[in-house]
Amino acid sequence: MGTTSFLKRAQALLRIQNKLARECLAELLAVFVLILIVLGSSAQMVTSFGTKGDTFTTYLAGALGLMVSIYTAVGVSGAHLNPAFSFAMCLLEQFPWWKFPIYVAVQISGAFIAAGAVYVLYYDAIQHYSNGTLTVSGPRETASIFATYPADYLSLANGFLDQVMGTALLIVGILAILDTRNKGVPKGLEPVAVALLVLSIELSMGSNCGCPINPARDFGPRLFTYVAGWGTEVFRWVEGRG
């Protein structure tokens, strides 16, 4: 009885009463889970010289990570996970505008923290692969583990179109999946449908820019690489790429 009473008191003390605080923590955790899996799969592929993963496995891991992250937070925060989705919900008047900057900050923070976790987890592998030199370009670059970079042939205009089209397709697809007027996905399987949608976008639109289709997924880890020692080049459109 004493132990049970103590646990109940501890739960009461740890319970977060503020609704916005619960939403922010859920969103932070969900984005952390998503980016941890996305970047972890990329780090495994790159640092193993492609022997323990390839482009398809990274896309598959990202889709499955998205599914898990949605299940993690959808009941509390709605599992936006993406500033573009939060923005779309505001435009459709399904999400208050005053929460938008808060959600964006939380999403970017979750991605930044996850990038740090992957860096620590794969620190030895990254140092070994890069010979101790953190670079954005070259045969042993490691910046692409964390953020997406354009293909050598891609112009700035084409890169912009690539991301607008991919993100728009993502938002339209999610809205269609969630629209109760459509033939609905079996209840509880919506995250699976969204994961398959993302996998299809990555498999069909991934070659130009790596298909981030999520500003938080790209900016948070990119900001981390700047802080961690890759330098300001992480924010530049590399010469010869448009």
Automatic annotation (TrEMBL):
Mainly resides where? membrane
GO molecular function terms here? glycerol channel activity; urea transmembrane transporter activity; water channel activity
**Domain of life of the organism in this record?**
Eukaryota
> What's the catalysed reaction?
glycerol(in) = glycerol(out); urea(in) = urea(out); H2O(in) = H2O(out)
Provide the topology term for how it sits in the membrane: Multi-pass membrane protein
Keyword Repeat (UniProt): no
Similarity comment: Belongs to the MIP/aquaporin (TC 1.A.8) family.
Name recorded for this polypeptide? AQP10 protein
From which organism does this entry originate? Oceanites oceanicus
